[in-house]
Design brief:
By secondary structure, the chain is mainly alpha-helical. Helices cover 71% and strands 0% of the residues.
């Protein structure tokens, strides 16, 4: 099952969404106001309410796009690596390189945004409903990756694919918890833990650590 793409937005609507996403790089959701979005985008109030039910609908649409992009970046690379070769050593090497690059370069602000979306969905039924399909599709992508590894004889067949998919998705936002503490873990140690998770479930539990 692939990522089911949402229908593309009208260019004006997408410009409004892109403006919100750009503003989120430096501003929290609660501090983004409609007048600021309109001024920055150069779009008037009429088109905003033509394309979106209200301003909250615009903000939630931006949140969903951010959420999907964050996870899709991970699953796309994961599937690309494990589908490319039947040579386990080379697949593990490529995936380890991806984990290292991702862990070293990921922005804490991006991670915090994703956690914020999950938190908001718990208290906003409309956002939760919009997020449901995206979240299930993304979980299915992780399950697909796990099944490929099973078919190639690499993965641990004793584990439930959905549970593994949820665990792996959770691991990619784990550093947000670290960011909330006064004492922080070493990134290199975190990378070792992520690699061990992949080894345990996707590659039969064989460790790459020396």
């Amino acid at each position: 099952m692939g990522i089911s793409a949402d229908p593309p937005l009208h260019p004006t609507a997408q410009k409004l969404v892109d403006t919100v996403i750009e503003m989120l790089q430096t501003t929290s959701y609660n501090n983004i106001k409609s007048e600021n979005v309109l001024a920055r985008s150069g779009i008037t109030r009429g088109p905003l309410y033509h394309h979106f039910a209200d301003f909250d609908d615009l903000i939630q649409t931006a949140q969903i796009q951010l959420y999907r992009k964050f996870v899709l970046d991970v699953t796309t690379q994961l599937l690309k690596v494990i589908e490319a070769s039947n040579d386990l050593a080379s697949v593990r090497r490529e995936l380890n390189n991806f984990i290292i690059a991702r862990s070293q370069n990921i922005s804490y602000n991006v991670l915090r945004q994703r956690v914020g979306i999950i938190h908001n969905a718990a208290s906003m039924p409309t956002l939760s409903e919009k997020l449901n399909n995206s979240q299930e599709t993304l979980t299915q992508e992780w399950m697909k990756a796990y099944q490929i590894c099973l078919d190639k004889g690499w993965a641990d067949p004793a584990m439930d694919a959905r549970c593994v998919a949820i665990l792996m998705q959770s691991s990619f936002i784990g550093r947000v918890l670290d960011g909330m503490s006064n004492v922080h873990m070493e990134v290199d140690e975190w990378i070792k833990v992520l690699i061990r998770l992949f080894d345990t479930f996707f590659f039969g539990g064989v460790s790459t650590n020396k």
